[in-house]
Amino acid sequence: MIRWNWRLASRLSVVTLAVLVVLIVAIIQRNNAATSAQLNSGNAPPNGLQGTSLGDTPAPDFRLTDQLGQQVSLSQFKGKPVVLTFMYTHCPDICPLTAQKMHAALQMLGSSAHDIGVLAVSTDPRGDTRAAALSFTKAHDMQDYWHYLIGTQTSLSHVWTAYSVYAAPQIHSVSHSTGLYLIDKQGRESVFLDPQHGTLSHR
User: Fold this and answer.
1) CATH code for the domain in which residue 61 is found
2) Which of 63, 93, 122, 197 is such that its CA lies 20 to 30 A from the CA of 11?
3) Is residue 104 situated within a structural domain?
4) Can you give the pLDDT of all 203 residues of the chain as single tens digits?
5) Would the CA dihedral through 132, 140, 190, 188 be positive or negative?
6) What interhelical angle do 94-108 and 6-28 show, nearest 10?
7) Between the CA of residue 60 and those of 114, 119, 124, 167, 183, what are the distances in Å?
8) What is the number of other CB atoms lying within 10 angstroms of the CB of residue 1?
9) What is the distance between the alpha carbons of residues 121 and 94, in angstroms, rounded to a whole number?
10) Would you say residue 70 lies in a domain?
11) Are 151 and 64 in contact (CB under 8 A)?
12) Side-chain half-sphere of 179: how many Cα atoms within 13 Å?
């Protein structure tokens, strides 16, 4: 396990925030031939920032329930770029930090933020109740930005498998892989961004 401290996490999150903003803008402007060629080539995004190209493979669809009790599917966002991440509401370190930085990134995008779908899929089917998801959403001012998606062990594990996400309960926490998938307007996996350019397990 990697135990995070807030000072290290804060330094990493500055990079993550910058990369996230740049990549979202790049995907929004996907019709620009140069931007598209750069993403498809697997090269670093603009400004030398790094993400992993996913080769524009179709993103696996799924349907879960959000913090408001509404049914939400990935496919309903076709025509918009989507940011997809995985977290849990009682996480003591990386998940709240990720939510905070996503909020900051979306605020930086201004009105363009509403042209993006943001989905956070739970890695804790037992602890992430609808009330917990709603409370976490409000605590990080994400009410107008994302759908925090919850479900049963079975329904969530299908999504974890589809996106190669590791999630396992510990005594008082959940160990899970971290990262952000950016999915383009056509519903294709475009870029994967990890806070430390690799999969992390944390407690």
Assistant:
1) 3.40.30.10
2) 122
3) yes
4) 334 444 434 444 444 555 565 556 555 554 444 444 444 444 444 433 356 777 789 999 999 999 999 999 999 999 999 999 999 999 888 888 889 888 888 888 888 888 899 999 999 999 999 999 999 999 999 999 999 999 999 999 999 999 988 887 766 667 667 778 889 899 999 888 875 443 323 32
5) positive
6) 40
7) 23, 14, 20, 18, 10
8) 10
9) 15
10) yes
11) yes
12) 23
Which amino acid type is present at position 26?
A
Whether pTM > 0.90 for this model: the answer is no
Helix, strand, coil % in the chain, rounded to nearest 5 = 40, 25, 35
> Which alpha helices (DSSP H) does the chain contain, by range?
6-28, 33-40, 94-108, 130-139, 153-162
In sequence order, the β-bridge partners of residue 85 are 120, 180
Residue 109 in tokens? 């995008």
For residue 91, give the H/E element and its range: none
Nearest to residue 144, comparing CAs of 169, 120, 114, 164?
A: 114
* Residue 143 domain flag: yes
Q: Are residues 101 and 88 in contact, defined by beta-carbon separation less than 8 angstroms? A: no
| 3-class DSSP assignment, residue 45 | coil
In the structure encoding, which two tokens stand for residue 136, read together? 């976490």
User: The domain containing residue 33 runs over which residues?
Assistant: 6-193
Q: Cβ of 28: how many Cβ atoms within 10 Å?
A: 18
